[in-house]
Write a structure and sequence with these properties.
Chain B: GO terms for molecular function: metal ion binding. The complex is a heterodimer. Chain A is mostly helical. Helix content of chain A is 78%, strand content 0%. Chain B folds into two domains: 59-159 and 291-331, Periplasmic binding protein-like II (D-Maltodextrin-Binding Protein, domain 2, 3-Layer(aba) Sandwich), CATH 3.40.190.10; 162-289 and 345-377, D-Maltodextrin-Binding Protein, domain 2 (3-Layer(aba) Sandwich), CATH 3.40.190.10. Classes of the chains: A mainly alpha, B alpha/beta. Chains A and B meet through helix 4, helix 13, helix 16 and helix 22 of A and helix 1, strand 1, strand 2, helix 4 and strand 7 of B.
């Protein structure tokens, strides 16, 4: 529709240009020259530019709308929130974010170092096994931990029934606490750091270490003085992913009865206290920006260079007497983060299957999940391609802005995107309000950058000469795009689509907030059944989500 | 080969998108006007063709299309009722469970829901005062006493509940328990084994509870009461189902719930050694805080005919019982046997003298009061 309009406008303009000579040619020429300057003499086609601008608009508008609403929330809401609520939420949110980020970085780095640099038995196998927790969404992980360690869980019963344990005292674990949330989030987010850190450890030049060793440094001194500083960019990238994740998580936090900004926004909007929800959203947006800025600021202060011409593969260190301990550590993490949750899910799925939990309704929910995630994946693939083409072939301030705006929804929590969507659709696009297209569009806003990143990686391998050759043979620009570019970068685009698909299937808060009546997805069902403690109905859906999430793991492992 | 592949992919994609757009417009259009017209047309045709058929049959032929239900209640108590309606009439019911009443208000300019089901009459009466509900005279509405209906039947309550304390008999004995709301001011209850549990302030039952206390005590004392339970409760949960399970399992000694959660816990295969105390039954006490679950038609409902049919259908005696369903509440209609046989009939309870419609006048300020206390965002 919009494309057609764009084309029409263009036609009209053309005819005006021919007929209407009223405008001063000097001004026209000036504008034209400026335009060419912006694009460095290589402006994109109108349609391409229009698509880019429209996407940037769609991507940024929900957030702009939330900020706008929060500014008009009224002094009353602001005063009430600033007095008590915001300081408390800030403390809850920041302490959790800091604690999870720190421990996930420590675990991720140490695992990466052990697995990549030492002679750990079966290190090839550990490399992907340690990344496996990535396939378990934290809210599913939280459910399994409630089943096992909750106040009426397996372990608590075992504690009460066994004599020598209950002699020690009452059951000491309280999963519904800061430490419960902290533990669950750490266990299911550390693989981000692990993957990034192992990649950079593998690329680390041995020369630096050899110099250090020749100066008489011990292995631990080398680790802290040489390896760790060189790992700084990897740690920063991983820490950012994790802290943004903790800021945005709703499912695990709600299930473990903790309240952060994201959960508070969800509850406020569920109670339709929209002004308060927007005010809290604004604070959360500022927090996100602060974290992004903090990372880029500390990174800019130090620069790291590795020379590539004398690159030597890092050597493998012998663990010696530490070998059993290292093996114990690695297996313990694997037990806690993979074996335990998956076995719990399988156990309850078997019971559920026996009780007929996998029925027509279940299949309906699964189909809803596939429908909405599939639509989101297709939209993302279709929209990411023109944007990355625009960015790589027509670099300019404008295309960079479009690119940056596309990341806005990715960095911010899903509740904020959903909040913006509710405003906009309810008030301005009523015909799409309460349809599943609204969820799909929210997914696009959230996950488009995933499709862009993977497409960009492919496009960077295609030389612009290819385009030029095709153009010189008489193809117009759009035909080059369809006949030459898209077929060559197809694998990258499809991989991006798969990533979006999986992220969408796992997504919880936006789906919960935007689902139309009668349209429940697997994620929503898992959340609902688990919060009602109907585990035999929650487990099959959760297991299915985990299985689907394995698809892009292979791609992720190759990427890092 | 590759070109062909990508070309066909693009083709499929564009067809999909076009179809998506088209479908939407259709949906929107039918959702708003056509559906009603079609229904009428179909009904007229049927009238003409099946003149000699019985009225009963006609009624069933008349209904098709869909019905959008927003329900503030827990899904397990409502879904079976909706399924029963679908089965008997052929109307496709699309439900949004655990919806907030204010969503109806937010969508006033773009009405989505046909029927709103709530477990808090305060919410229903509030919506009624905002002129968001529409009344009519359904058959058999007289089976419900007038104090449980809005003036023009904008909402009709079907089942009643009273507040009280569910307790675990293994952990605490009946005479150690608090007997009235006022008792919770005392911080001694923080010291009972494993403490006690309440729901978050955003819960509909808690909102009604606090409105009733404001009616009885005024705002200041009620705020102090909220602060007291907030400080002293060991568990603050999202819903009452969590409380009954936790108390049954011995995670907490007792909890503040509605009476039917006690019935539900007794029906559990294990963890069911629980008792219940109706609050404020003493001679000088205010009486148990009561509330009711009911439903109303949203004004401007997109499927108005189906909404009317649904409300008439719910008022059939068999379906009043289905409305109570698994919740095990007490039906308001005195003719009906409660599904949970041992339930204490309301006539035997001392109930607070506040007319339930009053709850509507308290609804908005109660929410503000709760938000000021922070109880709406507290979970532990």
């Amino acid at each position: 529709m919009n494309q057609d309009k764009g084309r029409q406008n263009k036609l009209n303009n053309d005819s005006h240009a021919k007929v209407g000579d009223g405008k001063s040619p000097a001004i026209l020429r000036f504008i034209n020259r400026k335009w060419m300057e912006i694009w460095k003499g290589n402006p994109p086609g109108t349609v391409l530019l229009l698509i880019g601008l429209i996407v940037a608009f769609i991507m940024s508008v929900p957030i702009v709308y939330v900020i706008w609403r929060s500014l008009f929330a009224g002094a009353n809401s602001w005063m009430r929130l600033l007095g008590d609520r915001i300081p408390q939420l800030l403390w809850n949110t920041l302490s959790l974010t800091a604690a999870v980020t720190f421990s996930a970085v420590v675990i991720g780095i140490s695992l990466a170092w052990i697995v990549v640099r030492t002679d750990l038995p079966g290190k090839k196998m550990w490399q992907w096994m340690m990344a496996l927790p990535l396939v378990i969404p934290p809210y599913v992980g939280a459910v399994t931990y409630i089943i096992v360690f909750g106040p009426s869980g397996w372990f608590a019963r075992f504690w009460r029934e066994s004599q020598w344990l209950s002699a020690i005292g009452d059951y000491p674990l309280n999963i519904y606490s800061f430490w419960g949330v902290f533990f669950v989030l750490t266990m299911f987010t550390y693989p981000y750091v692990f993957l990034i850190a192992s990649a950079s450890l593998r690329k680390m030049n041995r020369n630096f270490e050899e110099v250090a060793r020749s100066q008489g440094m011990t292995t631990s001194q080398i680790f802290f003085k040489v390896n760790l500083p060189l790992l700084r960019p990897a740690i920063g990238a991983g820490a950012i992913l994790i802290s943004l994740y903790v800021l945005s998580d709703f499912g695990a936090i709600a299930m473990l009865r903790y309240v952060t900004f994201t959960a508070a926004i969800y509850y406020q909007r569920a109670g339709f206290d929209i002004p308060s929800a927007s005010v809290l959203s604004l604070v959360l947006i500022l927090l996100t920006i602060l974290i992004l800025w903090l990372e880029s600021y500390t990174r800019k202060k130090n620069k790291f260079y590795q020379t590539s011409n004398t690159f030597k593969e890092p050597d493998t260190l012998s663990l010696g007497k530490w070998k059993p301990w290292a093996l114990l550590f690695v297996s313990a993490v694997f037990m806690v983060a993979v074996v335990l949750p998956i076995s719990v899910l399988i156990y309850w799925t078997v019971i559920g299957a026996g009780m007929g939990a996998i029925d027509a309704r279940f299949i309906g929910f699964a189909w809803n999940s596939i429908k909405v995630s599939g639509l989101a994946a297709i939209l993302c693939m279709a929209l990411a391609t023109p944007i990355i083409y625009l960015k790589s072939r027509h670099p300019s301030v404008i295309s960079q802005t479009i690119d940056k705006l596309s990341y806005a929804g990715y960095a911010l929590p899903g509740v904020i995107v959903a909040l913006g969507m509710v405003f906009i659709f309810n008030n301005h696009i009523p015909s799409l309000y309460n349809t599943f297209y609204m969820i799909a569009i929210a997914f696009v806003v959230r996950f488009l950058p995933q499709a862009m990143q993977s497409g960009e990686a492919s496009l960077s391998l295609v030389s612009p000469r290819m385009d030029e050759a095709a153009r010189s043979l008489g193809y117009p620009a759009w035909k080059v795009m369809i006949k030459v570019i898209i077929p060559t970068i197809m694998p990258g685009i499809l991989a991006g689509g798969a990533l979006v698909f999986v992220s969408s299937i796992k997504e919880l808060p936006a789906t919960l907030m935007l689902r139309p009546p009668g349209f429940d997805t697997l994620a929503v069902r898992v959340y609902y059944e688990a919060s009602e403690a109907i585990y035999h109905q929650a487990a099959p859906g959760a297991l299915l989500i985990v299985l689907v999430s394995i698809i892009p793991l292979h791609y992720l492992l190759r990427k890092y | 080969m590759r070109n062909l592949l990508s070309f066909s992919l693009l083709l499929i994609l564009s067809v999909f998108l076009l179809a998506a757009c088209g479908e939407n417009e259709n949906n929107a259009a039918t959702g708003n006007n056509n559906d009603v017209e079609n229904n009428d047309e179909a009904a007229n045709n049927n009238d003409a063709e099946n003149n000699e058929e019985t009225a009963n049959n006609q009624e069933e032929v008349e209904l098709d299309g869909e019905l959008i239900v927003y329900s503030a209640r827990n899904e397990t108590f409502v879904q079976a009722l909706l399924d029963k309606f679908s089965e008997e009439t052929g109307v496709e019911v699309r439900a949004l469970h655990e919806a907030d009443p204010l969503q109806i208000q937010e969508e006033a300019g773009n009405v989505q829901a046909d029927v709103f089901i709530s477990n808090d009459l305060g919410a229903l009466e509030y919506l009624n005062q905002q002129e968001l509900l529409e009344g009519f005279d359904p058959a058999n509405v007289d089976s419900i006493d007038e104090q449980f209906r809005a003036d023009n039947n904008e909402w009709i309550a079907i089942s009643a509940r009273a507040r009280g304390f569910i307790y675990n008999k293994d952990m605490i004995s009946e005479d150690e328990m608090p007997t009235k709301m006022e008792d919770l001011f005392d911080s001694e209850w923080a010291d009972v084994e494993n403490g006690y549990a309440i729901t978050r302030g955003g819960n509909g039952g808690m909102i009604g509870n606090i409105s009733a206390l404001r009616y009885e005590w005024g705002d200041e004392r009620t705020s102090e009461w909220i602060a007291a339970i907030q400080d002293n409760a060991a568990g603050i949960f999202e819903g009452h189902g969590d409380i009954r399970r936790a108390v049954g399992a011995g995670e907490h000694a007792f909890g503040l719930v509605n009476n039917y959660y006690y019935h539900q816990q007794l029906e559990e295969p294990n963890d069911n050694n629980v008792g219940f105390i109706y609050a404020d039954q003493g001679e000088d006490d205010m009486g148990a805080i009561a509330n009711a679950a009911g439903l109303g038609m949203v004004s401007g409902a997109p499927n108005e005919d189906n909404a009317r049919a649904f409300i008439e259908w719910v008022l059939e005696e068999e379906n009043q019982l289905a409305f109570v369903g698994e919740s095990l509440e007490v039906p308001i209609n005195p003719e009906l046997e409660p599904p949970y046989e041992q339930a204490v009939p309301f006539s035997e309870l001392k109930v607070q003298d506040m007319p339930l419609k009053e709850l509507g006048n308290y609804f908005e300020d109660t929410r503000a009061l709760i938000e000021d206390s922070g109880l709406d965002l507290e979970l532990r």
